[in-house]
């Protein structure tokens, strides 16, 4: 399969300038390395009616082009179920009946990373298992034999992060993000993952899971986020931050695009023009403060 990069938004609302900047970067990384560029809608959770269409329109308006059809995670339940079944057959999963509260109140295991699942359901005997099954639906957790894992990142270099017995399928039946993203990237031939660096802490879990599934680990580039004046991740409440908001304030889409390109030290103009000047080594390494409209 040809190699590919991707942008994978959650259709929970309109994309803001931070999302659009990450999309432009993912596009530049993929196109500058001769990769295909795929769009995947991560709609397992938090999907809002109509949001996908607006997001696709805004991406196209800013100049981000993609190859092939848009893929939606809600169409891919059988792929996720197959991957979980493979892990199950290898003895790498277990059922977990814990509530959030039970997890919070449990003593943490010795040497476990902070916030790690404390292993309450890891070794239930048959009677306990049958009793718990009669009380509550189970989530499926990965049975992990490491506490951390190391990945390579274009921006951050070697990055080591915690890996615990994380959830693969929630007890409401919804596939967990960490499983879906690994299965999707592999199945779509994605070998380059460019996304916001808020996702870096969960990357060791995903790479470890990929290794268990004999899936090649993609190249990662976690890009600095766009922040507000207080240094917090940009959000809707930070004023005019979507293409529609900015258009209302008199900033046309080309103006937004050029501002985003300038923040990446790239020349104004269409994305093909920026592509000619793109060099990952020249990208800023710090979060970018959105100056507002
Ligand atoms: Zn449990």
From TrEMBL:
First-level EC class: ligase
Residue ranges annotated as motif 'KMSKS' region: 233-237
Chain positions of motif 'HIGH' region: 9-19
Residues engaged in binding Zn(2+): 96, 98, 117, 121
EC number(s) stated in the UniProt entry for this protein: 6.1.1.-
Keywords: Aminoacyl-tRNA synthetase, ATP-binding, Ligase, Metal-binding, Nucleotide-binding, Protein biosynthesis, Zinc
Pfam family name, one: tRNA-synt_1c
Cofactor remark: Binds 1 zinc ion per subunit.
Domain of life: Bacteria
NCBIfam families referenced in this protein's UniProt entry, alphabetically: PRK05710.1-3, PRK05710.1-4, queuosine_YadB
HAMAP family recorded: Glu_Q_tRNA_synth
Name this polypeptide is given: Glutamyl-Q tRNA(Asp) synthetase
Natural source organism: Arthrobacter sedimenti
